[in-house]
Specification:
Blueprint (H helix, E strand, L loop, with lengths): L1 H25 L2 H11 L3 H14 L6 H14 L3 H14 L6 H15 L2 H14 L4 H15 L40 H4 L9 E8 L2 H13 L4 E6 L5 E8 L2 H13 L5 E3 L5 E3 L3
Helix pairs in contact: 2-3, 2-4, 3-4, 4-5, 5-6, 6-7
Length: about 280
Amino acid sequence: MLGGGRPRTVVLLTLMSLVSPHWLAAQGPALGQVERLASTGRAEEARAMLLEWWEDDRSDASRGDLQLGLWLRGRLTVDPGQAAREFRRLVIEYPGGRYADQALFRLVQGAYAQGDLERVRTYMTSLTRDHPGSPVLETAEAWMTRASTAGPPPILQVVEAEESEGPRTEDTPVEESVAEPSPPVVAPSQDTATAGTSSQGRYTVQLGAFLDESRAQALLARASLADLDVRLVRVQGSRLVHVRVGRFDSSAQAGVSFQNVTALGFTAAVVRDAQNEEPIGG
C-alpha cells in the first residue's frame, strides 16, 4: 500500500509545483501590495502600482480582484467624481460583492457632503435593504446620527485633495457626481483638452506616475499621438515620473480637461501640486 501511494504523492506534488505559481499569480499579489502601501500612507506609490495593474493585468483578473481593483481606485483616486463612479460600479455590477456595502456608505457620505439629502436617503435605503446584517450598516447609521446633530450638511462645490495625502478613512466624505452617464464627448483636439491652461496654475491632469521612466515615456508617446500637450515631470518628495497634461488656475478648468482626456481613452486624475513640478529634460 505504501509503495503504491508514493508515486501518487510524487505526481501530486509535481502537479502542485507546476500549478501553484500560476494560481498564486491569479490572486493579484500586486493588489495586495497596493493595499499595504495605502495602509501605511504611501498613497502615491499605491496609485502608481494600481494604475499599472489596471492597465496590464485587469483583463485576466478574477471577479474578486476586479472588485478589489475598483474599491482601491475609489479609495485612492484624488478625483472625487471618479471615486463616486467607482463606488457606483461596485454597487451596480457586484451588488452582493465584498465591497458593495462599503461603497454604498461612501456614496452616502459623498451625497451628504454635497448637500443632496435625497441621494443620501436613496443610498441609505439601499444599504438597509440589501445589507441588513452588515456591520457597515451600523457604522453608517452611527455616522448619520453624528452628522445630523452637527447641523445641515455643507454644500461642497469642490473637494480638493493633495496628491501626496494618505488614503481616505471610512469617515472621510467624498463628493458625489451626477448619477446619469455623461453624454458622449467628441474626441478633443489639443486646444480643447487644454482649454483654460495657465503656465502658473497649480492644477493639472495626470495620466500616470511610474517608477520606471520607460513606462512613462511610452505613455507620453501615446498621449502625444492623440495631440495632447503632455509632459514628463518629477514632483518634489516623490521618486516617480509623472505624465501630465495642462496647468490650470482652478479645479473646474482642470475638470473640463479631465473629461476630454478620459474621452480619448486615457486613465486620468486631477491633482493640484503642479507648482511642485520639476521638468524632465527633452
